[in-house]
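Priority: medium. Attachment 1 of 2:
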């Protein structure tokens, strides 16, 4: 199972990173629809797309508007968008309001059930996370593969059991440890806390993502500090491809 990191930044894109978008091309699954969504169509191995939104902040949804073109040309045949009811309502009411974006693509909107059947024989479930306005975390699994996606939240241990034992944990790390107080104030995670979340949950591999766009350097969060706590830690970067 391939995982493509198409957008690994938070808040706004910079010259190095677009905002949140993770693609599983073989099964047509996307987590979050940030500014990197323009990269999806060329990498998608199916013509059907299933988009799972963590929340409705602009850096995670604006890319939904970018799907109009690929749907019009037939590169993408169908798009199903999943999320909490309040997120979907906000998207339809505001993102696709007539003055902002006058054409609502032919999306299928689905309020999340407790479990969702995924293409390729997989399943997905979700949990609530601690973030201003709310957010969702996802756990998905197929025969022989499992992953969790946790972003836009304080690494507070509330989801430890939810992600326990996955092959891959994708976890936000918006701030380095010297900004831990700011992370708590804004509902985000910092380096050591994200690594501790992986260690406490006994996951096999940790990929950090959703970095502060004010820091475009190779290592904006000190991966060494994370590896001192959880050795199997890597930093995601735009266009990175891995196998789980």
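Attachment 2 of 2:
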């Amino acid at each position: 199972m391939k995982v493509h990191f198409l957008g690994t930044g938070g808040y706004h894109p910079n010259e190095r990173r677009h905002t949140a978008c993770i693609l599983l091309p073989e099964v047509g699954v996307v987590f979050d629809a940030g500014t990197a969504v323009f990269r999806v169509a060329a990498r998608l191995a199916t013509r059907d797309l299933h988009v799972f939104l963590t929340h409705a902040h602009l850096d995670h949804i604006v890319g939904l508007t970018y799907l109009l073109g690929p749907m019009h040309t037939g590169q993408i045949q169908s798009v199903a968008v999943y999320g909490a009811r309040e997120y979907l309502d906000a998207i339809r009411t505001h993102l696709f309001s007539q003055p902002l974006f006058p054409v609502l693509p032919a999306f299928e909107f689905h309020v999340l059930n407790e479990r969702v059947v995924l293409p390729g024989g997989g399943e997905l479930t979700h949990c609530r996370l601690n973030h201003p306005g709310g957010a969702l975390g996802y756990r998905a699994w197929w025969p022989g593969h499992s992953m969790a996606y946790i972003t836009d939240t304080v690494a507070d241990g509330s989801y430890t059991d939810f992600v326990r034992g996955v092959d891959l944990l994708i976890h936000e790390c918006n701030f380095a440890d010297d900004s831990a107080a700011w992370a708590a104030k804004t509902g985000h995670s910092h380096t050591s806390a994200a690594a501790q979340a992986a260690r406490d949950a006994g996951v096999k591999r940790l990929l950090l993502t959703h970095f502060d766009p004010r820091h475009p350097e190779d290592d904006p969060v000190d991966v060494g500090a994370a590896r001192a706590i959880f050795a199997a830690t890597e930093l995601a970067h735009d266009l990175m491809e891995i196998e789980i």
